Amino acid sequence: MSGRLVVLGLGPGAPGMLTPDATDALAQATDLVGYVTYLNRVAVRAGQVRHASDNRVELDRARLALGLAEQGRDVAVVSGGDPGVFAMASAMFEAIEVGPAAWRALDVTVLPGITAMLAAAARLGAPLGHDFCAISLSDNLKPWPVVLRRLTAAASAGFVIALYNARSRARPEQLGAALAELRGILASTTLVVFATAIGRPDESIEITTLAAADPALADMRTLVLIGSPETRLIARVGARPWLYTPRGVAA
Ligand code: SAH
Predict the structure, then answer these.
(1) Are 51 and 32 a contacting pair, CB within 8 Å?
(2) Best of 222, 225, 226 to mutate for ligand 1, by most ligand atoms within 8 A of CB?
(3) How many whole angstroms from 164 Cα to the centroid of ligand 1?
(4) Is 13 in the pocket of ligand 1 (CB under 6 A)?
(5) From 94's CA, which of 67, 167, 188, 228 has a CA 20 to 30 Å away?
């Protein structure tokens, strides 16, 4: 008898941002599969087996989860944020596409989560109120020239840009190169936000401009938001300003 496979997102980290559907799936699972950092956010349950892995082995992790479901286990594959945004859901379908026919018959469900850009946007105000896009700055899975080409196109087209995977210890230089590229296209006053560890106890938010943006403000828990020409601040006394993008753009 074949089991069940749920690919779910834990949200950015705050317990209140975990959906009830994801909570139920976590409670029901016989096996949890995921990157160790994300599994550590899930309460330990007696009798539930944890298969923790390193961050870079998404396809192996997907195959492990599919094999367990095939054996009749009730498997929850855990991602941070949303599982379909630069995360495990795609890896799962990549594995199914080239895997044994039996995997296509499995009961697979994807449960959405609150992705980092939405959690960060809500903290700030409403920066994603008009057209926006999300780009991963990591060149682990695509060539760097493709990253730069997409970034340049998005900035030239006036999108607000959410940069995932902006900086890590293994890739310390790329965010600086990306910001340099953007300085050639966008005004120096363009608003830039470093939103780090949103929803966790060490959450921090830095609002700056493209001219002043310092890549050192980002680490692997940071979402970098690049404003559009319309994105603006509302100053407040004794509080962080609100940041928003109006609903419309002039002709
Ligand atoms: N599936 C995740 C994204 C995985 S890629 C999601 O939907 O959020 C990992 C990147 O997401 C990080 O490098 C960072 O850019 C961003 N990120 C994840 N959690 C975050 C958080 N709590 N605060 C800010 N950025 C976060």
Answers:
(1) yes
(2) 222
(3) 6
(4) yes
(5) 167
- 65 touches ligand 1 (CB under 6 Å): no
Is residue 121 domain-shared with residue 235, that is, in the same domain? yes
Distances in whole angstroms, Cα of residue 161 to Cα of each of 12, 69, 153, 168, 206: 19, 37, 11, 19, 16
Q: How confident is the model at residue 250 (pLDDT cuts 50, 70, 90)?
A: confident
Is-above-0.90 flag for pTM?
yes
Quick one: 149 and 224 in the same domain? yes
Which residue CA neighbors atom 20 of ligand 1 most closely? 116
Strand order in the sheet with 222-226: 132-136, 160-164, 222-226, 191-196, 204-209
pLDDT band at 57 (very low <50, low <70, confident <90, very high): confident
Range of the domain at 230: 117-244
Q: State the CATH number of the domain containing residue 100.
A: 3.40.1010.10
Considering the domain architecture, whether residues 121 and 238 belong to the same structural domain is answered as yes
Position 226 in a domain: yes
User: pLDDT confidence of 1, banded at 50, 70, 90?
Assistant: low
The CB of 80 under 6 Å from ligand 1? The reply is yes
Q: Is the CB of 86 under 6 A from ligand 1?
A: yes
CATH of the domain at 180: 3.30.950.10
| Residue carrying the six token digits 């396809």 | 59
Say what the pLDDT of residue 53 is: 82
Give the position of tokens 């609002």: 207
Report how far ligand 1's centroid is from the alpha carbon of 223 (Å): 6
Q: Is residue 160 part of a domain?
A: yes
Q: Give me the chain's average pLDDT, please.
A: 96
In a domain, residue 75? The reply is: yes
